[in-house]
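Example (one chain per record):
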Amino acid sequence: MACLNRPRLIDPSFPPELLLKTIEYLPFDNGAIISALSNTHPLLRSLVHEYERSMTQNYIRRELPHAPSDFPCEPTERGYTWLQECIKKYDVVDETMARLTSDQNCFALYKHNTAVVYTGMLLLYHVASIEPHAAKLDFLKSLPLDPLTAIYLAVHNSTLTARYHSYDSILHQKIYGRFMDANTLSLRSDIEFAFSEGCLHLGPSFIHAMLYAPATAEPTLLNLYHDHVINDWDVSTFDEMQVKPPVTQGPLRNPGEEARSAWTIMLERMSELVKCPLEEVRSRIEEDCDDIGHSLTFLNLAGRRRLMEGKDLEYVD
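Predicted structure:
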């Protein structure tokens, strides 16, 4: 009699092909449905595990067609875990872009640059994943101008948004005041330099945290400030300063042993490609991209794929 009461879907005689087809029509969402389903019965767990790759491909085709190019990995590694990570990363980028493009953002991203900055966020995920540090630097030095520009614009616009809208953060302009002397301006530059470095090391999740929950990200920012700060402030002069630099502690490094800054390497590479002095490259890129007619304006999906491959837009229709 127990067999008569068994649900039809988990009856061994039920064709697994039909069961798989039924499961594939469920939305993947964040993977919770598949996880819950696999825990309901050993037969379902076995089926979900055995056909993980084919089901993942089905979900990609139906829900995330650009994920393989946005978050490249070996086909054998594309499973439920990878799919969950893709969705989390898309959510982080979407929420970050919402803050960058908000009507309440006094330095809102230009609409013609929205797609290229979105691509820059995806590239930041890739850069952040590269280890060791030397390999990250080599990768940045190998990139042509267009992918570097996308990364730069993502970091630059995130910095501006944090400067004026990350209210409880050390990045916020209220810390430095309306009128800044040379020391204050230098301090703000140092803090923003550390933020830029963090973007390359930690990716959009770091940007998202600084914009939405700065208290959770600020210790990391101060660690980066400690490791990469440009100026060695003289503590004895703090009382004379308009804004006091943060006091940090960390391991002492012998001269020449510090890891090179990824942000500096990237700017040097851009300076080389643009053929302008290092101190001018940022303003050159920003001025060029303010123009609605620049080459990366309203970037399409074909262009996005090309930049994700580490290539310029040349030959893209």
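Caption: The chain is about 60% helix and 0% strand.
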